[in-house]
C-alpha cells in the first residue's frame, strides 16, 4: 500500500470516493470513511446550507476523516468555503477552476487541499498553487471531464514524471485490478466514483443505480464539450443532444437546450429519459448494487490477490 496518501489523510487504505453531484451525500461519504477509505461530500449539487447540514450529519455518522469536493466555478463559492472552514472540515478536493483562488485560504485554516486535473499542464499549475496532492482524471471518467481526452493510464505516468506531490488516479477504476494497475503506473492512491454511485448508501435515485448496472461497453459517451465535457449514458436526452449537434448549434443554443437541473432530474429524481445520467466507462463492469463496506472489501481483496499473483511471475 502507498503510505503517503494514507498518512496525508490519516486513512487506512489509499482509496478516495469521488465527490459526485447528486450521488455523494453524507451517508455515502461516512460509509466510505468508516470502511477505511476517504469519503467525500459532493458540494456541487448543494446549496450552502444544505452542505452545512450534510457536513454536520457526516460528523455524527463517522469519527474518521472525510472531506468535501468543491467545483470552483459553481455559484455561492464564497459561502461554501466559509461553511467548510466554520464546520472544521479538514480535507477539501477542488475541481473545475483555478486552484490558486482558494488553496492558500484553505491551507491557512489547516485544511489539506487536493485539486482535480486532466492534463500535465494543469497538474503543474496545481502543484505551483501549493496543493497537497492532485487527482489525475482520465477520459474514462464519469461526470465532467477534460477536453484533451487523455486516458487515465497514459495521464498517470506523464504527470508522475513531472510533479513531486502525490498523484491520485481517477477514471475507469472500480476494482482491485484497476487499483493495482494505476499504482504500477505511479499513482499513490485511487479515486473511485462510479462504483460507489451504485451502492446502497449512494444518494442517487434507485432508477439511476439500476441503469448503471445495466450499462454495457459503448453505452456512454463524452459530449457537450463546448460547455463542460461530460460523459453520459446514452438515453433520449443524449440522442436529442446529438440531433441538435447536426444543426451546428451555438453555445447559447446548447445552454438553452440543456436548461437547468438536467443532472438532478436524471440522477437524483430518476428520470431516465429526459435526465442527464453521468457515469464512467467502468460502469460496464458494475453488475450489482451493494453496500459500501462490501464493495471496498472486494476491491482490497482483489488488489491483494492479484498483487500476490503478479509477484510470482
In short:
The chain has 313 residues and is an alpha/beta fold.
Structure explained in plain terms:
The chain is an alpha/beta fold. It has 2 domains: about 10-205 and about 285-305, TIM Barrel; about 215-280, no CATH class. Helices cover about 45% and strands about 15% of the residues. Helix 8 links the parallel strand 8 (about 165-170) and strand 9. Helix 3 packs parallel to helix 4 (about 75-85). It is globular and about 50 Å long.
Reported for the largest beta sheet, the result is: 8 strands, parallel
CATH class of the largest domain: Alpha Beta
Compute the number of strand runs. 11
Instruction: Supply the number of structural domains.
Output: 2
The secondary-structure element order is HEHEHEHEHEHEEHEHEHHEEHHHH
- Helical content (DSSP H or I, runs of 4+): 40-55%
Number of helices: 14
Strand order of the largest sheet: 1-9-8-6-5-4-3-2
Separation, N- and C-terminal Cα atoms: 20 Å
The CATH homologous superfamily of the largest domain is termed Aldolase class I
**Strand portion:** 15-25%
CATH topology of the largest domain: TIM Barrel
User: Could you say what the CATH architecture of the largest domain is?
Assistant: Alpha-Beta Barrel
Strand-pairing-aware structural class: alpha/beta
Amino acid at each position: 500500500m502507498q503510505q503517503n496518501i494514507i498518512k496525508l489523510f490519516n486513512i487506512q487504505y489509499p482509496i478516495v470516493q469521488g465527490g459526485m453531484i447528486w450521488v455523494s451525500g453524507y451517508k455515502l461519504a461516512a460509509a466510505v470513511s468508516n470502511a477505511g477509505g476517504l469519503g467525500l461530500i459532493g458540494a456541487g449539487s448543494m446549496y450552502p446550507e444544505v452542505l452545512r447540514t450534510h457536513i454536520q450529519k457526516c460528523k455524527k455518522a463517522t469519527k474518521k476523516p472525510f472531506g468535501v469536493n468543491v467545483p470552483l466555478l459553481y455559484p455561492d463559492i464564497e459561502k461554501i468555503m466559509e461553511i467548510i472552514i466554520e464546520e472544521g472540515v479538514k480535507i477539501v478536493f477542488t475541481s473545475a477552476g483555478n486552484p490558486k483562488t482558494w488553496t492558500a485560504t484553505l491551507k491557512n485554516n489547516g485544511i489539506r487541499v487536493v485539486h482535480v486535473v486532466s492534463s500535465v499542464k494543469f497538474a503543474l499549475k496545481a502543484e505551483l498553487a501549493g496543493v497537497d496532492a492532485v487527482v489525475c482524471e482520465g477520459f474514462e471518467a464519469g461526470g465532467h471531464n477534460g477536453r484533451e481526452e487523455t486516458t487515465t493510464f497514459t495521464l498517470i505516468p506523464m504527470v508522475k514524471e513531472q510533479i513531486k506531490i502525490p498523484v491520485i488516479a481517477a477514471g475507469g477504476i472500480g476494482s482491485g485490478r484497476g487499483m493495482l494497475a494505476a499504482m504500477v503506473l505511479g499513482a499513490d492512491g485511487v479515486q473511485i466514483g462510479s462504483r460507489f454511485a451504485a451502492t446502497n448508501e449512494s444518494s442517487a435515485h434507485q432508477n439511476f443505480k439500476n441503469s448503471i448496472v445495466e450499462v454495457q461497453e459503448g453505452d456512454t459517451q463524452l459530449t457537450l464539450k463546448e460547455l463542460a465535457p461530460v460523459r453520459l449514458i446514452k438515453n433520449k436526452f443524449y440522442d436529442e443532444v446529438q440531433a441538435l449537434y447536426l444543426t451546428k448549434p451555438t453555445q447559447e443554443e446548447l445552454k438553452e437546450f440543456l436548461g437547468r437541473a438536467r443532472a438532478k432530474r436524471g440522477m437524483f429524481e430518476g428520470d431516465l429519459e429526459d435526465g442527464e445520467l453521468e457515469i464512467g466507462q467502468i460502469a460496464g463492469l458494475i453488475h450489482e448494487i451493494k453496500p459500501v463496506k462490501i464493495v471496498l472489501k472486494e476491491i482490497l481483496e482483489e488488489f491483494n490477490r492479484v498483487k500476490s499473483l503478479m509477484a510470482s511471475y
